[in-house]
Amino acid sequence: MRRGVRRARPHPRIYRPRPGPDHRAFDLLYIHGVQNPRMVVVATVANLRAAPSHKSELVSQLILGEAAEALEATDGWVRAAGVDGYPGWVSAPALAERADGDVDGPSTSRWGLAWTRRDGTAFDGPGPEAAPLRDLVLGARAQAAEEPDGIAYGRGAGAGTPSDGGRGAATARRPVTLPGGGTAWADGAGWASLPDLPRRFPPDPGAALRTALSLIGVPYLWGGASSKAFDCSGFVQRVFRLHGIELPRDAWQQAEVGDPIDAGPAGAGLAPGDLVFFAEGGTRVTHVGIALGGGRFVHASVRRSGVGVDALDPSDPLHAASLASTLAGGRRVAPAARREFSVGAAGSASG
Hints:
- By secondary structure, the protein is mainly beta.
- 12% of the residues lie in helices and 31% in strands.
- The strands form 6 sheets. It has a 6-stranded antiparallel sheet with strand order 17-22-18-19-20-21. The chain has a 5-stranded antiparallel sheet with strand order 6-5-4-1-7, with no helix packed on it. A 5-stranded antiparallel sheet has the order 13-12-11-8-14, with no helix packed on it.
- The longest helix has 11 residues, at 232-242.
């Protein structure tokens, strides 16, 4: 369900909304001297909390290079929302002013880059003695600091899935400009140029499932929406976002988009790439996964302590009886083309 966000009193030097129907229209924004509500994430992961306190509930996350819009501010905290419009309180140092042409600008920017591995490291120099500077997570954004020639920054690679690793040999590191400024070096093969991203991660079910299965083992975290840790809807949103399909943040919201699908007995009506939903009490959607076909699905769950594969069919050794009893249906959000995904492959990937 959507997590509540408590409103704090605006600081007297912070902007206040103009009267009118558009709450995102502002007279003035003054956050650390920035007169611009358009922000960019400069931390590896920016935690969105229900209230302006590190002790408050984690409601979601934004990742390095993602755009955010400042909605409100108080001492040391900014209430912000990402492209999905989902608000939360972010520690102010995790955000910086986003200038025109910044890393989360138009997808046609040939200098823009996206990290294509589930993890990685950016260093403070190109040599073997360089120190780690910043962790990288799947989908993190940066800009090429030298001509993106198609080889140095991974454009020569074919369509694939995020892989482990990312430290990269020193000789393979390429300079990037980090969001908010500063240069770092990371394995060039781990990046994809933004114009090349749709080829590397096309918006079709088979490709999205390969990405989802490559994230098996990532831990579960309530509010998690990065490849460091996921909750159920954060996992689904991150996978499909990488493949160019934007979904809302919470499971109940995701259950309202796309075309409804009759899941059928034990999920037999679900095609690979369909979203599969579960509801407590039979009505309120509280959980979501991605169907693999054959009644299996991949999801982030407490049961699996993270991302893993479960099944709806009682005869399947991966049968999750507690979830199967709350099956609430499915939704189709990805194009119908290229739904060739092997159930056997899904089974082997689940280990």
